[in-house]
């Protein structure tokens, strides 16, 4: 009889959890009908959380999901600036301060014409779980502008960035909100933002931004952290399954910050990277691409990846960047942008023998593509976990700034490796505990959620 009551109550909890998740998702859809990327990000998380609510009804009582999916604050502002010809332009700036239960808001700034409220919200929402997974004291935010840096002069970029920071500076601070870079925002833009912030505040607040130049308050190893961290995480996953990067054929999309250092680490671990891309197209070299050339073209000369074949005629250039996924490989590392791998790309990769995929970019695979990978036994490292190395080293930069000291590159790399290993273990354990062994998508969502949900319960309803 007692046994029966227990089973009934378990079933009751399960159905209450399903109803709760369904109701909250319907509410979010109704409230944000046009935000397709944000809805995609929430749906992907919600699917993982049903067993958590069945086991922990206290999260339902505390309205965790309703609160967790509504940003604490969204700031939207005008950014006016003058081009080199004296013409006035107006862009829109954003900062989404999503959740501060684990620390000051933390997350990058993106400059890209596609930036809108939905993209900012999806990125800031994902950041909640990612930052929680690092185990470091950071909340979650994201910001940016629909400004397109492509084709702009150095001075135009500086004027725009200063104008952007003039407004943003009212809403951030070392203990409030600490932005970093993302697409279109690298060390140069962070430098201009940092200069403008300090000018406006009349002081030197080293901890207000991360991703700074290591010669001026930045951390060694930050530039490399996301790409290296992704490869460290994927290597953990491969080793667990008696595989490794050594002698593997790898494709990395993009040729920006994350891609470059994912390529570098994969090469160091003995892989051959046969292709990379930019938004114009991709290069393919069956013998392995030359990273020095990619770095010079992208980091120094700011040129298109198509220029690569002028120096390496043995390589091929193709204009459609999405066709990069038609090249056979053992490991795919999408490191460019959201939704770059859909069902068609997933089927092509699997047909060509893909064994593992690590998401270096944020949400690079559609939900349908993820399902296809999992159903076909591809080892899958989700972005929230795999690309958390960047924000982890950003948090280390905050620590160094507070202590007014600098750790060595070796110290940072050791800490990064440890963080990525711990994230892998937390994801694996959470997946085991909630009945989906080996499912790192579920593991990452659940492990990140538990950390932030417990803090939200502890901090009361607000
Ligand atoms: N920079 C970080 O520390 C960090 C941390 C975590 C996650 N991310 C995520 O990683 C991704 C890349 O960020 P980044 O900092 O390297 O930006 P970046 O601007 O340095 O590089 C982006 C690269 O992607 C290319 N690209 C853009 N759209 C493309 C497309 N449709 N197909 C192929 N290539 C395309 C660009 O040409 C560029 O080479 C983003 O999703 C970002 O949110 C970045």
Description:
This protein has 17 helices and 12 strands. The protein has helices spanning 2-31, 36-55, 57-61, 64-68, 117-134, 154-168, 187-201, 222-240, 257-268, 291-300, 308-311, 343-351, 367-375, 383-386, 389-403, 409-433, 440-458; strands at residues 73-82, 88-99, 105-111, 140-145, 177-181, 249-252, 272-278, 281-284, 316-318, 331-333, 356-358, 379-381. The protein is an alpha/beta fold and 462 residues long. It is 51% helix and 15% strand. Helix 5 (117-134) crosses helix 17 (440-458) and helix 6 (154-168) crosses helix 7 (187-201). The protein folds into 3 domains: 2-69; 73-206, Rossmann fold (3-Layer(aba) Sandwich), CATH 3.40.50; 224-381, 3-Layer(aba) Sandwich (Rossmann fold), CATH 3.40.50. The strands form 2 sheets. The chain has a 7-stranded mixed sheet, sandwiched between helices. A 5-stranded mixed sheet has the order 1-2-4-3-5, sandwiched between helices. The structure holds nicotinamide-adenine-dinucleotide.
Brief summary of the model shown:
With 462 residues, the protein is of the alpha/beta class. The protein has helices spanning 2-31, 36-55, 57-61, 64-68, 117-134, 154-168, 187-201, 222-240, 257-268, 291-300, 308-311, 343-351, 367-375, 383-386, 389-403, 409-433, 440-458; strands spanning 73-82, 88-99, 105-111, 140-145, 177-181, 249-252, 272-278, 281-284, 316-318, 331-333, 356-358, 379-381.
């Amino acid at each position: 009889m007692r046994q029966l009551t227990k089973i009934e109550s378990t079933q009751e909890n399960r159905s209450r959890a399903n109803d709760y998740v369904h109701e909250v998702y319907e509410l979010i859809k109704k409230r944000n009908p046009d935000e397709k990327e944000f809805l995609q990000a929430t749906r992907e998380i919600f699917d993982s959380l049903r067993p958590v609510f069945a086991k922990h009804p206290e999260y339902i009582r505390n309205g965790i999901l309703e609160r967790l999916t509504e940003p604490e604050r969204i700031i939207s502002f005008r950014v006016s600036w003058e081009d080199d010809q004296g013409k006035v332009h107006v862009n829109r700036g954003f900062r989404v301060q999503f959740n501060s239960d684990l620390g000051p808001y933390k997350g990058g700034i993106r400059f890209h014409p596609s930036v809108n409220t939905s993209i900012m919200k999806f990125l800031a929402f994902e950041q909640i779980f990612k930052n929680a997974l690092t185990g470091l004291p950071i909340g979650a935010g994201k910001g940016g502008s629909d400004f397109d840096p492509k084709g702009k002069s150095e001075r135009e970029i500086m004027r725009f960035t200063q104008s952007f920071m003039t407004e943003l500076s009212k809403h951030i601070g070392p203990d409030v909100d600490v932005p970093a870079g993302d697409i279109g925002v690298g060390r140069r833009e962070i430098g201009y933002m940092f200069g403008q912030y300090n000018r406006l505040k009349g002081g030197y607040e080293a901890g207000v931004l991360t991703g700074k130049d290591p010669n001026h308050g930045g951390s060694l190893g930050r530039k490399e952290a996301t790409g290296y961290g992704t490869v460290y995480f994927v290597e953990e996953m491969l080793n667990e399954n008696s595989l490794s990067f050594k002698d593997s054929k790898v494709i990395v999309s993009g040729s920006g910050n994350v891609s470059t250092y994912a390529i570098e680490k994969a090469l160091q671990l003995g892989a051959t990277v046969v292709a990379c891309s930019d938004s114009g197209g991709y290069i393919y070299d069956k013998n392995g691409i030359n990273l020095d050339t990619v770095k010079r073209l992208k980091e120094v000369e700011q040129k298109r990846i198509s220029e690569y074949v002028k120096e390496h005629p043995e390589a091929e250039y193709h204009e459609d960047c999405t066709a990069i996924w038609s090249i056979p490989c053992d490991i795919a590392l999408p490191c460019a942008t959201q939704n770059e791998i859909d069902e068609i790309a997933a089927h092509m990769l699997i047909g060509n023998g893909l064994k593992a995929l690590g998401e270096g970019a944020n949400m690079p695979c559609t939900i349908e593509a993820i399902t296809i990978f999992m159903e076909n036994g591809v080892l899958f490292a989700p972005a929230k976990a795999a690309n958390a190395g960047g924000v982890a080293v950003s948090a280390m930069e905050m620590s160094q700034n507070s202590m007014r000291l600098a750790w060595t590159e070796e110290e940072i790399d050791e800490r990064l490796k440890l963080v990525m290993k711990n994230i892998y273990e937390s994801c694996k354990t959470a997946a085991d505990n909630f009945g989906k062994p080996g499912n790192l998508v579920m593991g990452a969502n659940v492990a990140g959620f538990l950390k932030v949900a417990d803090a939200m319960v502890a901090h009361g309803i607000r």
